[in-house]
Amino acid sequence: MDKRITEQPSRYEHLERMSVGELIADINRENRGVPEAVERALPQIERLITAIVEKLRAGGRLFYCGCGTGGRLAILDTIEAQNTYTSPPGMIQAVFPGGVDDLLNTTESKEDDTEDGWRQLREHGISTRDIVVGFSASSTTPFVLSTLRHCRAEGIATGSVVGNPGAPVSEASDYPVVVLTGPEFVTGSTRMKGGTAQKLVLDMISTTCMIRLGRVEGNRMVNAKTINQKLLDRAVRIFMERNPRYADYREAELLLRKYGSVKKAEQAISRL
User: Fold this and answer.
1) DSSP structural state of residue 113
2) Distance of alpha carbon 94 from alpha carbon 75, whole angstroms
3) What Å distances lie between residue 199 and 88, 141, 207, CA to CA?
4) Which H or E element spans position 51?
5) Active-site annotation holder among 80, 171, 217, 266
6) Which residues pair with residue 38 across a beta bridge?
7) 7, 30, 111, 253: which is the annotated catalytic residue?
């Protein structure tokens, strides 16, 4: 019998006999425990994020490494960090089986490739200035495990987020994070609680890093890109709140359209 907690049988039986109401109530009941599991791992998460911030401040980069749900969530996080905080291009990147371009494809068969992740990192010029964080709910994914082992052999800092204790992926990490969410509602379907935990940790990593690196002021996203009407409107309102002498919405909107973010607009008017 597989000893991994994430592979243990569901606490629920005969799912096919349940009504929609019963299914969603039980799924929700299971999900309630995810934030509690993340809370128990906060000291580990703090160590990991502190190490990441140090690397980024020194000019290094953060690389996520993951497959399946974890890998796709990691790629999403790299995109959102760029849009929300205008993080420098390449500061936060991801390696994914077959390459990031395979995001929309079913690439789970490539999880067993033990050289692909390291090859991608070398193509990105990975060095000891950088840090690589692997995501593996099962805690044994060959793609992630091998990539982290390659990194450690080359003196590159490593971290990980896994769902089982005593995991090989954790052993290959300088900063391991273990979030124990228990058996899944559908046995072995770690896209559920395991994936939710990964998303929560990813939010913590990118958000905390960007705040510590000065990409947030007060509690406002002053560096967010104004790439659609919703974001432009938000930026205009933030700008007017921070700069009361600009009481005309249209005037402020023109400034934001011209400079692309609250911070850049403020820098421009400070030179007037």
Assistant:
1) -
2) 6
3) 22, 18, 12
4) helix 42-57
5) 80
6) none
7) 111
Side-chain-side CA neighbours of 158 within 13 Å: the count stands at 26
8 A C-beta contact, residue 182 and residue 5: yes
The verdict on whether 80 is a catalytic residue reads yes
pTM (predicted TM-score): 0.92
Length reported for the chain:
272
Q: Please answer whether residues 180 and 163 qualify as being in contact, where contact means their C-beta atoms are separated by less than 8 angstroms.
A: yes
What's the rounded Cα separation, in Å, for the pair 48 and 27?
30
63/186 Cα distance (integer angstroms): 30
Is 251 among the residues known to form the active site?
no
Mean pLDDT by 10 residues, the chain (272 residues): 86 97 98 98 98 98 95 94 90 92 66 89 98 94 96 98 95 97 96 97 97 95 93 96 96 96 95 82
Widest Cα–Cα separation across the chain: 71
